[in-house]
Amino acid sequence: MAFDAGMTAAVCAELSAAAVGSKIEKIYQPSADEIVLLCRGKGAGRKLLLSASASSARVCMTELSRENPKTPPMFCMQLRKHLTGAVLNGVRMYGFERVIELEFSAFDEMGFACKKFLHTEIMGKYSNLIFTEEKNGEKRVLGALKTVDFTTSSKRQVLAGMAYEMPPSQDKTNPLTENAAHFEAAVSSYPKERLAEKFILDTFQGISPLIAREIAFRAGVLGKTIGEIERTDVLWHALKAFRETVFAKEFAPVMLCREKGEPFEYTFMPIGQYGAAAEVKVFPSFSAMFDAFFGARERMAAMHSRMHDMHSLLSGIKNKLSRKIPQLQKELKECEEMEKFKLWGDLIMASVYMLNKKAAFCDVTNYYSEEMETVRIPLDNKLMPSQNAARYYKKYTKLKTARSILTEQIEKAAEELSYLESVEEAMARVENEEDILGIRAELMHAGYIAKGQTAVKQKDKPERGIRKCITALGREFFVGKNNMQNDYLTTKLAKKSDWWFHVKGGHGSHVIMLCDVGEDPDARDFTEAAAAAAYYSGFREGENVAVDYTEVRNVKKPAGSVPGKVVYYTNYTAYVNPAKPTEVK
Predict the structure, then answer these.
(1) CA distance 168 to 156
(2) CA-CA distance, 515 to 438, in Å (whole number)?
(3) pLDDT of 479-538, one tens digit each?
(4) Which range is least confidently modeled, 257-271, 440-454, 555-569?
(5) Whether pLDDT at 454 is above 70
(6) DSSP state of 225
(7) Which of 30, 294, 323, 562 could join 66 in a cystine, given CB atoms 3.0 to 4.6 angstroms apart?
(8) Confidence class of residue 458 from pLDDT cuts 50, 70 and 90?
(9) Which burial class, exposed, middle or buried, applies to 137 when counting CB atoms under 10 A from its CB (0-12, 13-18, 19+)?
(10) Chain-centre distance of CA 323, in angstroms?
(11) Do the Cβ atoms of 79 and 104 come closer than 8 Å?
(12) Which pLDDT belongs to residue 381?
């Protein structure tokens, strides 16, 4: 993934056709490294994005919405002062470098026409936006998104008032001006043990690793060392073909996706090196491609951020419960002595007439034992025997009450821990942002997240986003994505004659297979519904997973129980291999 010089040329060509002549109406800076220019021209308004992000630097039109800060940063205010009302006159690149210059017709403080420029330097972590003005044939820096002084770089400084200079060259050859003789000389002097694609990457400027591999692939030498190539002219012809693509501006907005549709590369020309291992998507414009690529990445980043917050929250609560339960169990074990204290009180009272009034212990006969053994009971020598008996009765009553409370607390803590594990299991199966919002709404409803802690509008209706699936024989069934959806499916949506499925002894989705009264579904329908319940559970990677199923009439939700918790009787158990069901919209 790289915005290389070829991509720079392609974007310049697209923006020259679409944006030149547009008037700048508004300017925003939604993040620390992004500027958005609202342009109007050719009867339409557009948003021109200039990004100097280390991981997603680019220049393109965009349809994505971004939230702007209440107080614009200083660089944004400077651009508003100089460029609001200016007209975009040209979009160009320098040589074969990743620098895009936007030229504007504007006016200075005295009202005289002048030229001003925005230079977008796309260079990874060194990416920058530099604002300049032309005076006496020289461009002077007016401001920069990221200022660079002598403490940051000794090679090139970017400060207001300084002359604008191009970024330092990499001492590589411009592929657009290369000739066959120089190419052959470069090949001859290159280490023979290195790969052909590495030669392209090391020798020519503005070429990304993806394009270097593609050039080698088209030459039929991908993965071969220079020493293994019999005819180096095939590599030269492949480079010439690449150069002709740039000269002719025969660009194609191409995005490469993995098996699950996740984008991992974008480029300006068809790519063949991945074969069937990558899905190729061609877009009508580079701007649309960038929106699709980076929009998906930004959504994934936002999802991971929300997921991380919830994981941290749940992990903290689970750790507390994991420490709390053993402590409660320890205290409960101590309650086992309560019967001993009651016995001691009874024995003291039974023998009180024979005991010394104030003694450190007493030896009494245990009348409640068949052996009638003698029991030594510790006493407080400051108290009378009857007072010691009352003290042991009080201990007995206290421990008896504590046992009841501790048993209830342990059950609640264990149930809460199980519930949190079910939420984490649901989080492991999220597929989109709506799934995350559903789980977040569930945690809000359960009181784990305060409603004021998120600015995201939550969906109040649990039925939103429930998976609707169909078996091979055409029978419909529904799959819950979180505990609130599971409750809705089982207690609200399902009829008593429907069939309910859930993985045995674990956390997972409730699956409801629709069935009319008196109807007898095919065995294959039961198998597919059970396989779906196994797939959407913590046993997705297992085999011969046990899945319980029964009619909905046999499933009950205990009063006051946590979301997703049910009890059921008279069930059957199927052993199936997890399988993703066929979803319908």
Answers:
(1) 8
(2) 27
(3) 998 998 999 999 999 999 999 999 998 899 999 999 999 899 999 999 999 999 999 998
(4) 440-454
(5) no
(6) B
(7) 30
(8) very low
(9) exposed
(10) 29
(11) no
(12) 87
**129: β partners:** 120
* Helical (H) or strand (E) element with 389: helix 385-427
Rg (CA), the chain: 37
Spatial contact of 509 and 479, defined as CB atoms under 8 Å apart: yes
Are 247 and 259 in contact, with CB atoms under 8 Å apart?
A: no
Tell me the pTM.
0.62
Q: What is the pLDDT of residues 43-56, one digit of tens each?
A: 788 999 999 998 88
Neighbours of 229 (CB within 10 A): 19
450 contacts: CB under 8 Å, gap ≥ 6: 444
What are the structure tokens assigned to 25, written together?
């109406």
Distance CA 283, CA 272 (A): 17
Quote the tokens at residue 499: 């069939």
Rounded distance between C-alpha atoms, residue 58 and residue 34, angstroms: 9
User: What angle (nearest 5°) sits at the alpha carbon of residue 143, between those of residues 142 and 146?
Assistant: 155
pLDDT higher at 15 or 313: 15
Least-confidence region, from 7-21, 133-147, 446-460: 446-460
Extract the tokens encoding 280. Answer: 């190729």
573 by Cβ neighbours in 10 Å (0-12 / 13-18 / 19+) ranks as: exposed
Contact criterion met (CB below 8 Å) for 88 and 103: yes
Interior CA angle at 135 toward 131 and 137, to 5°?
A: 105
Q: How many residues does the chain have?
A: 585
Q: 348: which 2 tokens?
A: 């003291």
The string of DSSP letters for 518-530 reads T----HHHHHHHH
Pairwise CA distance, residues 268 & 282, whole Å: 10
For 119-131, the pLDDT digits (tens) are 999 988 889 999 9
Question: Mean pLDDT over residues 353-372, rounded?
Answer: 87
β-pair type (582-583, 263-267):
unpaired
d(CA 149, CA 159): 7
Place of tokens 């960038």: 290
Q: What angle do CA 70, 75, 81 make, to 5 degrees?
A: 90
> Among candidates 143, 139, 125, 150, which has minimal Cα distance to 94?
139
Burial of 336: CB neighbours in 10 Å, binned 0-12, 13-18, 19+: exposed
Per-residue confidence at 1, pLDDT binned at 50, 70, 90?
low
Comparing C-alpha atoms, which of 45, 23, 18, 49 is closest to residue 36? Answer: 49
